[in-house]
Fold this protein.
Amino acid sequence: DINSWLQYAITRYGRGDRLMVVRDVTRMHNLEQMRKDFVANVSHELRTPLTVVVGYLETLLDAEDSINPRWKRALQQMQQQARRMQTLLNDLLLLARLETSDTVDDEKPVAVDLLLLGIRQDAQALSAERNHHISLEASSQLRLRGIEGELRSAFSNLVFNAVKYTPDEGEIQIRWWQDERGAHLSVSDNGVGIAPQHINRLTERFYRVDSSRNSSTGGTGLGLAIVKHVLLRHDGKLEITSTPGKGSTFTCHFPSGRIV
Ligand code: ADP
């Protein structure tokens, strides 16, 4: 194998000389492609039957007067879990698409301030009874060249996370600004925060700090993986800073070349 060959080459040619290693990665690349295709196909195939299940559950629950309370509770649980599965499949499909397709065609100038306005509205509706205070400071002159739908997914994941991981009455700040280095979007919260040892792994698929806590918040563990891939496709970078018990800030940095 490659390692014993390398060992041999080093003893034979000595460490002082130059050594060139050529490794054929075609097989690895093909396997990775198969994995991506498989995930995308399975997610796609599962979506249709699940839509049927959710549809029938809705019909049954519409007739709630004629069903007994125990059945109703069971149906509601089923509906909740089926919806979770739908979110999971949608996230998996989105991630598969982000990993495989090209961007360039659909890129156009995106008014990020308007995008954020909509996201804030959705987040406020989502957290209606929890009294979060969500402030928004966004430059209306600053547009980003990119794919609007993808940017919306990424930014709303960050804002919804802030809502999910911040206790009632919490403060959430969204900012979108420009400086000499480029354009930046940050989402800060004064919520639960994240311990340092987790920070580097947060953008891995299905990685969650505390899965027991998260099952109640209903996440899929794919949100930050989606954010990372969307940023990659827009030449951007994600920076995460956090203090446990005090709060977190997620900042997306985009290079000046992306500003229009
Ligand atoms: P999830 O669906 O679990 O929210 P994400 O990929 O969006 O998945 O986030 C991964 C993990 O990062 C979450 O499970 C949570 O532990 C942590 N996290 C994300 N955003 C925040 C935040 N604003 N405050 C605290 N922890 C966060």
Summary: The mean pLDDT is 90. The radius of gyration is 23 Å. Residues 157, 161-162, 165, 189, 191-194, 202, 207-209, 214, 219-225, 248 surround adenosine-5'-diphosphate (CB under 6 Å).
